[in-house]
Amino acid sequence: MQGSELDLIMTRSVILSFASKLALFKRSFGHREFYQLPSVAALRENGAVHDDDIQVHCDHLDVLQKDMQERFQDIFTMKIPNWVIDPFSNIDEIEMELEEELIELQTNEELKPKFKNEYHSFWLQHQIADLYPGYGQW
Length: 138
Fold this sequence. Notes:
Helices cover 64% and strands 0% of the residues. By secondary structure, it is an all-alpha fold.
């Protein structure tokens, strides 16, 4: 999960996706369905994988999933306001102290094309921090 383009929002997406896949893999293993792992399916057909082996892997996936939920609890519970992803949409749940700045930001015609590239680089522009200092605090 390291990289120069990885921000907190992408980190959250990656972690939640991986945790969901762990749950899927555990459920699939428990039902003896191995479509995500064709090599395991082939081993199972050849009799090289036994029920005890499957249970060990299910238990391991369960422990791994619980460990991730504990370790990344702050990421799992983090709420990302809609205005962070799309500041130009109509947003009702914004904090009162940011509402005036959001109106100014939404009516700034120079910024709209810049946002189309991606939200990550949009929020990192010096112009945003200078014109709308309240958003740098989020």
